[in-house]
Specification:
The protein has 481 residues and is α/β, with parallel strands linked by helices. 32% of the residues lie in helices and 24% in strands. Strand 19 and strand 20 form a beta hairpin.
Length: 481
């Protein structure tokens, strides 16, 4: 954790999530549930189970709140907002620390102990499937949940470790603003932080092995974000391979496979995640896992041992805070009760919080093309909406894909201001199995960007007006004049 701002927000943050003077409690004789990891999945599992009357232990080695609060969602989104508002670098980082400390109250040791959870700070390891060690204590438990999350993956590039690259865990501890920043990886983390630093005045170069930035997204959606990054001065280098790293008199140097070099004051690695499983001694509990794919679970989030569950980044390809939250709810039902809740039935949206945002849910056009599934495409450009003109937010579009010839929604992509918020009605429709026709009576306020959905509903309705139906309507209207 950061050593900066010792008497201010950072000190308050640390006292809340990992107090130095905290003493672990005496373990109960036996717990209903022991949760390892206090990120979003672990916190919700612990407090929900305790609220239902279970005896719960929660073990955390670094700081309650996990990556999301401490080095992930909260600081990165705050930094991007601060950069977009015109703050200078030092004030932007001060804002990050203030917001993190304010939100830490909700994830504090004090809050969870007050809720009846026995909080243990330290490294957990299994002694057996029903015994977990932390420090000198051994906790005995009926069920266990592993929610230890993931950390930044450092690629095995020659020389990379020697230049001390930044990750999301260290970038917010910078004492000063780098003049030049090279970012390895143009996924959501790389794009968000790259744009934030560019808006703060740093020269940013974004390198990506795939032929486009945000390679998991629709190509046109990624291109819209790329255009915005270029306008902010980010130099984009998709389709490049970094061969090695080192130091020269000019700075930290990345040597590319084509022989060219990228020189920067700092290098930020945003090239995937490694699951936190190495120190848990999972073999003692009969739990299968590896650092790349994480812990193997079934649809009920059971591991290879039926009394041990996992949730969040440690076991899921969907590495989002909201995914961890949803999976924790599945775990609580299944671990404490004769439950059959399934995580594979969850509708899981995602959002990249660049300016403009890129949000998506369901299948993409590439997914459907690969599967050989026919589909219809409905699109509205935000420049066609009155709200896009009134508040200068015309940059972007909304697109909904439906099964060919039907109103069944298969997926949706939105690029634009507050795209994550605008996606919510489609997420709800997919969750409840509502097609565009069932959404027909929906009334949306004017003028808002959510009007895109009204237009898409109407566009689909017009496709239902077959030539025969049109002739019948004209005949009827003629007869009733």
């Amino acid at each position: 954790m950061s050593a900066s701002d010792e008497g201010g927000d950072d000190a308050r943050w640390r006292r809340l999530v990992f107090p130095a003077d905290y003493r672990n409690p005496t373990p109960s004789a036996r717990y209903n549930l022991t949760v390892i990891g206090a990120g979003p999945a672990g916190l919700l599992t612990a407090i929900a189970a305790a609220g239902l009357g279970a005896r719960v232990a929660l073990i955390e080695r670094a700081g309650l709140g996990g990556d999301c609060l401490n080095v992930g969602c909260v600081p990165s989104k705050t930094l991007l907002a601060a950069a977009s508002s015109g703050l200078e670098f030092a004030l932007a980082l001060k804002r990050v620390r203030a917001v993190r400390a304010a939100i830490a109250v909700h994830d504090s040791v004090e809050r969870y102990t007050a809720a009846g959870v026995d909080v243990f700070l330290g490294q957990a390891s299994f002694a057996s499937a029903h015994e977990i060690r932390v420090g000198e204590a051994t906790l005995r438990t009926r069920r266990a949940v592993i929610a230890t999350g993931a950390r930044a993956h450092i690629p095995p590039l020659p020389g990379l470790a020697g230049i001390a690259p930044l990750t999301n865990e260290t970038v917010f501890d910078l004492a000063g603003q780098p003049r030049r920043l090279a970012v390895l990886g143009a996924g959501p983390v790389g794009c968000e932080l790259g744009q934030a630093f560019a808006r703060l005045g740093t020269e940013v170069e974004l390198l990506e092995l795939a032929p486009q930035i945000l390679p998991q997204e629709e190509p046109e959606a990624a291109e819209r974000v790329a255009d915005a990054l270029l306008r902010d001065g980010v130099r984009l280098r998709p389709g490049v391979r970094v061969a090695s790293a080192g130091r020269t008199d000019a700075g930290k140097t990345l040597r590319l496979a084509d022989g060219t070099q990228v020189v920067a004051d700092e290098v930020l690695v945003a090239a995937g995640r490694t699951r936190n499983v190495a120190e848990l001694r999972l073999e003692r509990a009969g739990v299968r896992a590896d650092p790349t794919s994480g812990i193997a679970v079934n649809a009920r989030l059971q591991t290879s041992h039926p009394h041990i569950y996992a949730a969040g980044d440690v076991c899921s390809a969907l590495q989002f805070t909201h995914a961890a939250d949803a999976q924790a709810r599945v775990v609580v039902r299944n671990a404490l009760f004769p439950g059959s809740a399934r995580a594979d039935r969850l509708v899981m949206p995602k959002c990249t919080y660049t300016r403009p945002e890129l949000a998506h849910v369901g299948a993409s056009s590439r997914d459907l093309d690969r599967a050989g599934r026919a589909f219809d495409r409905y699109r509205v450009e935000f420049g066609e909406l009155d709200r896009g003109l009134t508040d200068d937010s015309a940059d972007g579009y909304a697109e909904v894909l439906t099964a060919r010839g039907t109103d069944r929604i298969l997926g949706a992509t939105i690029v634009g201001k507050d795209a994550g918020e605008q996606l919510s009605p489609v997420v709800l429709a997919l969750t409840l199995g509502l097609g565009l026709e069932r959404l027909g009576p929906l009334v949306l306020p004017y003028p808002t960007r959510s009007e895109y959905l009204r237009r898409i509903i109407d566009a689909h309705a017009r496709t239902r007006l077959t030539p025969l139906a049109a002739r019948t309507l004209r005949w009827w209207l003629t007869r009733t004049r």
